[in-house]
Design a protein that fits this description.
This protein is an alpha/beta fold. The protein folds into 2 domains: 3-51 and 377-433, Urease, subunit C, domain 1; 55-365, TIM Barrel. The chain is 30% helix and 22% strand. Strands 1, 2, 3, 4, 5, 15, 16, 17 and 18 form a 9-stranded mixed sheet that branches. It has a 6-stranded parallel sheet with strand order 9-10-11-12-13-14. Helix 4 crosses helix 6, helix 6 (210-227) runs parallel beside helix 7 (239-248) and helix 7 (239-248) packs parallel to helix 10. The two termini are 34 Å apart. The protein binds zinc ion (ZN). The site of zinc ion (ZN) has 5 residues, from loops.
Length: 448
Amino acid sequence: MDLAIRNGLLVTSDRVMAADIGIADGRIEAIVAPGESLQAQRTLDAAGLHLLPGLVDAHVHLREPGLVHKEGFAAGTRAALAGGVTTVMVMPTDDPLTFTASQFEAKRALAEGQAWTDFMLQAAIGAQACHVEELVEAGAVSFEIFLADVSPSLLVPDAESLLQALARVAAAGAVAGITPGDHDVVSRRTAAIRAGSTGAWQDFPPTRPPVSEALGIARACVAARESGARVHIRQVSCASGAQVLAALKDSAHITAEVTPHNLLLDEGELGRQGPKAKVAPPLRPAGDVLAMQRALEERVIDIVATDHAPHLPAEKAAGQGDIWKAPGGIPGLQTFLPTMLMLVQQGLLDLPGLVRTCATGPARLFGLGGRKGELCVGADADVVLVDMARRWQVRDEDQLSKARYTPFAGRMVQGAPVRVLLRGHEVMRDGAPVGDPLGRFLRPATTA
Ligand SMILES: [Zn+2]
């Protein structure tokens, strides 16, 4: 072995157990009872620490290419490591969008050498759905379909376009990620509300009402059943959405995610924090936050993903006093593990549940089962060492994203990631990156 991690408490998706880990060539080679023989060149003493698999974030916007003033692969993945994340799946919503294999390859080349975490790339599909096969070949992890709230080139505007796109995805044996919503509801309500608005923050949430999300989820579920495609529904945020999902989910191959902010923050944050808390779908009333917590507990929602969507502080500040002038989106990578530990502290999740929903679950959904998201023999040695005894405060000034703020600033967290290993290499210690960026491109295992 190259490295032995001794005396830690290993967390899997179903239990916590005392175990020692042996690592060779970047992979977990052995898991043995504490103190059992493990010949290794180096030893890391993890006494008093929990060992979690590196989190797998299935939904991040890293703003590169084209929008690198807002983030970029380097800044975004450093923030990820500090948040206990070792694998990111990167959305195609940059400039240019990731529509073709050549755009995909160019983005991959940009990320290689800069990324501090391992990464997968998602592809955009739009109404034409013409590049699916070449993008599968290039290693796209999913095909992203937007039913509302995006530029015309990204929008899948009607049911027939959606059915055709899903048929192409199904034929290629790929996964479709669907961002729900109803384009007519969002665009017409936005126009009507803005026409009479003075820019008060209270005017923003009603432009994306729960019924829009519920309609989008219903359409996505019915189209999934019709096409036979594997569909993953993004950023479910409200009771109405979760109810429709619960009713229709088992009719087809459908999974779904929720963000940490929709599990922890209610719409009052928009009043308290202003444009920094502007995001789509919007932060919802407290009843919806509770509904999302329950949906996660009842496994209507399968995984948590951050929808990391950074903007510069100045861009957000432009909406102070006029909410329409701020872009929507909040950073989430660096607070992924901390926010989930807040849910653990509140008793809404245990540590195995955290691992299941934030690591093992997303890895298995997106073709990384057995390689990422779990501490088992044969998996990559992506390990987060967490000191559960440490209590600390989230602060804006510690954020490594170019956004340099977090809507969770000021919150206390019980449990701190003190070290992160990527394929056996230490890449983060006490919130600071160590060494050089080692992130690699990952392609999903082909599913039958
Ligand atoms: Zn997103």
